[in-house]
Structure formats: structure tokens, C-alpha cells
Amino acid sequence: MSTIVALWKRGLKAFVRNRTGLIFSLIFPLFFVYVFGAIFKNDAIENPIAYMLSGVIITTVFENSLNLASTTVDDMVSGFMKEVLVSPAKRIEVAVGQLLSAATVSTLQGIMILVIGLFIGIKFTSWITPFYILISMICIGMVFSGVGLFMATKVRSGQTFQIIKTAVTMPLTFLSGAYIPLSMLPDLLKYVAYLNPMTYATAFFRMIVLEKINLSNAELVKEGLAIKINGLIITPAMSFLIIIMIGVIFIVLSTKSFVNTDFSRINRSSTDASALWG
Amino acid sequence: MNSIIEVKNFSKTYGDFKAVNDISFEVEEGTIFAFLGPNGAGKSTTINTLCTIFEKTSGTLLIDGKDVTTQKSEVRSAIGVVFQDSTLDTKMTIEENLKMHCVFYHVPKKEVEERIQFVLNLVDLVEERKKFVGALSGGMKRRVEIARGLIHYPKVLFLDEPTTGLDPQTRAHIWEYILKLQKERNITIFLTTHYMEEAEVCNKIAIIDGGKIVAHDTPYALKREFTKDKAFITTKDGTKLEQLLSEYNLNFVKKEGYYKVDAEPIDVLLQVISLQKEDITDIEIKKGTFNDVFLEITGKKIREES
């Protein structure tokens, strides 16, 4: 238990100390809000800034949790992970600590954008909304921390890992409806988007932020908050369930994979990660 | 004295390649044991297997009576490890690194502060405790790692090339700490090195080459067995000297301007010299070094890594 707390604190400290990283992690999302919010101003969306912000917040949580959990690879290269793995600390606790710290930091980043959002367009009418938002951010943070850690344990080469990470996060972000509404995508990409877990995370999160919980299914589809695949309507509640299921699968997979990885293949004499899993 | 490390018939193979081939040795409690060998001889494979990081292919490896394969957690609690490359968290301070280590090794909370003081004192880093590890020099980092390896009071401390890449002054300091440690806490120290002069201060040495232990003894015994003192003789009459040396069964090599002659047994050499007093212009006797031991045994020079 104390191992989990220690690694969690380590993640938080690294986050708080990295001021430059902190500022840049805010600039990009707000830039997207500004650009896409301006593009969709004349469209059917009633509150484009709030609409964009909800997408951007959840994307931030998604990208950061995935990134942070996969920094386990950096810990391998820097050697710190070797120190952890040669200690009597339980590997499962190490994995959980890494997951929790990634989920927490990414949630904090989401909250920071949300706070800025409160000044530029998001308004809550119900006091319960912030709690729902917080819970969904933590859940989605955990889900994609699981994905990130899983990727990290499967790494063969540090350099290709960077490329793969971008190749995974970019389409997942842009084909999730977070920036571009799904209704504007060509048919082929729409089907790709239906396979994207982020599509469901975005729809669910947006419904909560825009406080549209009480709308009927037809209205939700019209607003792009429920997803209609060939007549089958996936409601936000179902979306949430899908996300949680994917999350549970990946958290179990990543922890298992982390516990069982044969670290005897680590080549520390190499300075970059490319020879790491060779 | 009882053995704290016991290795019996240990082998490790990667595919067809035998990194370590059926080695056996024991290390007595409270001693300094050095593992010598050229790069790729199997030193790191052995140390990593003893530290529970690598899996053995066959054999038995026990530390303090516990099996490194089946009792990993017990073994890990009993050992401290300083790896060849830094394993510190550079974004944290020295103090934070030590505290984190105490958590991993289940050091009782109320003892943490006292132990941090103790180990930092040992390596002269009390003043630097709040400094970030990333800002420290290579020698300081190594000292932090030694301090960290000790904070959970291990029975055995593994040092994988603790002084490689450090300047001579820092190396001397690190050795001071190691010796102080062994005296004060009676810790068993298992180290690998390729600095021959460092091996000489150890209690026992095993030389490993091509995955096999080729010699295992005290430094003194190894030196006696494998080195010969040499005499460098310059003479006006080379043919006569060669004749005499062959007559008295002394091995020699003719070099540019001088002869390199075995100086043992010394009385025989003195006799040869006395027979040729008038012609000999210069004699220099050199004692055998540990480098010679290594060359004699493995037939190759230990190369220094950068």
C-alpha cells in the first residue's frame, strides 16, 4: 500500500515541479478551443465554446493519462524502474501506483482547463454536475492509463514507441467527435470512429458538461451526444459502460503484463530506449 | 565462518549461447569478494541473477540460505544493489530518493530519519541532502547510490563496477567508504571490477572468463601462483648471457637492447649474474602485478570501458 502512495506522490511532485510543461499543457487545449470554437460559431451548435471545451478537456485527460502511464518506459531507460524492481516492493503495487499517478495528474490537468472554461463559456446550473465531471474524468483517466501502461510493457523499441504513441493518439483524438462533430465526417471515417473508445468517452462527458442528462434519445442523437449506428442508438449511459469495460480489460491486462514482463532483457548500457527490449 | 552466498552449478544460456557455464563458488560472511573478468565474461549475468533480476537456466543460488528463484522477496530484502549505471530518480532530491527507497524496503517509519543521517554521514553528503540528483556530479551520484543501497541494512551489498568511469580521486574515496562499511557493519560485499589494483584489497577473488571461473583464491595466493618477478638485464655480451640462461634453465625473451629474464628462483639468477659481472651494465627487477595474474590466466588483457 505504501508503495502505491509513494509512487503516486512521485508522479504528483514531478507534475507540480515541471512548470514549463504545465503552461504548455494549457496552451494547446485552449488554442484548439479558440480555433475550433471559431470555426463552428455559425453552425447548429448552440454554445460552441462549451461544446469545444468539453471535448478538449476529455481529450486532455485521455492524452495525458496515456502519455504519463507510458513514461514507465522512460523510467526503464533512466534506470529508476530497475531500482524499484530489485526491491521487495510488490510489482502489482508498482503497477497500480503508476496507473493512479497517471490518472490523477491527467485529471488535475483536465480540472485546470475546466476552471479556465468556467470563465470563458461553461456554466453549471446544478451543483451535482462538477461531481459527475470529476468522477468521469477520473474513470477515463484510469482507463487510458491502463492502455498506456499496457503499451509500455509491450515496447520493443523506444524510438518506434514515440511514433506508435502519436499514431495511436492522433486518430483517436480527431475521430472521437471531440474537435470535429461526427456528423461532419465522411462515412468511412464515421465507421472508424464507431470503433474508437474515445468516441463514447467524449459523448458521455459532453452530455455531463452540457447538462443534457434529461434529454430524450432522439434529442441526444440530434445533438451528437448519443451515437446512432445503423439505427442502433448507443446512449451516453451505454457509452459509459463501454468505456468502463474497456478500462477494466486494459487495467487487468497492463497489470498482468507488468508483473510478468521478463526484465532480464533490459539493456541499460544503451542510452536510448531502442535497445531496451531488443 | 559461514557462507552467505552459495552458488552451485549455475548456468545461464541465451538461445545457444552459454553466458555462464556451470559455475560454483561461495562467499563468506563479512568479507569483500571480487568478481573479475573481461567484458562479456558473465560477470553481470551472475550478479543480475543473484539480485533476482535475471532468471537462471539451471543450478542453485542461495543468499543467506534463501533461494534467489523461489524466495525472491526474502532475497531482495537481504541485499542492497548498486548497478553499473545510475538508477536514481534524477528529478527528485537525494532525501526523496532515500525516503522512496525506505518505502520499497519496508523500513519502519520512525527509523527513516535516523538512517538517512547515518548513510549520508558515511558518504559525506549530509550537506547536499536537499539537492536534486540531476544536478550532482558522477562521483556524488555513485555515493548517493551506495548510501541508498545501505539504508535498509542489507546483509550483502552488490556493487557492479562501482568505480568505473570515475576519476582516480573519487575512486579512492569510494573505496574508503566501502572499506569503512565492511569494518563498521560487517557487511558482505560482492563486487565486480576491471581495475586490477582494486581487486587486491579484497579478501577473495574469482576470475571468470568465457562463462567459467578460471581461478578462485586470495589475491596473495593468486599472485604467488601466477606471477613471476622479472629482471631486465642489459649486457655487452648477449651470446654469453643467452648461453648461461639456457644452462641454468631460466626463461628469457630478447628485447630491443635488453633481456627480460625470469627472476625466480632468485639464487639461480644471482649466480648467472655473478658469472657475467664484467659484461652486465644494468639490472632492473620488477615485481609481478595483478595485471600479470589476469593475463596469465585468461591470456588477454582486461580492456577498460570508457
TrEMBL record, chain A:
All residue ranges annotated as the ABC transmembrane type-2 domain in the record: 16-261
Membrane-spanning residues: 21-40, 52-73, 94-122, 128-151, 163-182, 188-209, 229-253
A cellular-component GO term for this protein: ATP-binding cassette (ABC) transporter complex
MF term (GO), any: ABC-type transporter activity
Entry keyword annotation includes Cell membrane: yes
Classification via InterPro entries: ABC2_TM, ABC2_TM_bact-type, ABC_2_transport, Nod_factor_ABC_transporter
Compartments, record wording: Cell membrane; Membrane
One Pfam family per UniProt: ABC2_membrane
The keyword DNA-binding is annotated on this UniProt entry: no
Its membrane topology: Multi-pass membrane protein
Superkingdom of origin: Bacteria
Main localization (coarse): membrane
Keyword tags: Cell membrane, Membrane, Transmembrane, Transmembrane helix, Transport
Similarity-based family: Belongs to the ABC-2 integral membrane protein family.
Protein name: Transport permease protein
TrEMBL record, chain B:
Annotated ranges, domain ABC transporter: 5-235
Keyword Endoplasmic reticulum: no
GO molecular function: ATP binding; ATP hydrolysis activity
UniProt keyword annotation of ATP-binding present: yes
Annotated keywords: ATP-binding, Nucleotide-binding
Pfam families per UniProt: ABC_tran
Record-linked InterPro entries: AAA+_ATPase, ABC_transporter-like_ATP-bd, ABC_transporter-like_CS, P-loop_NTPase
PANTHER family: ANTIBIOTIC RESISTANCE ABC TRANSPORTER ATP-BINDING PROTEIN, LINEARMYCIN RESISTANCE ATP-BINDING PROTEIN LNRL
Name of the protein described by the UniProt record: ATP-binding cassette domain-containing protein
Organism listed in the record: Anaerosacchariphilus polymeriproducens
Organismal lineage: Bacteria, Bacillati, Bacillota, Clostridia, Lachnospirales
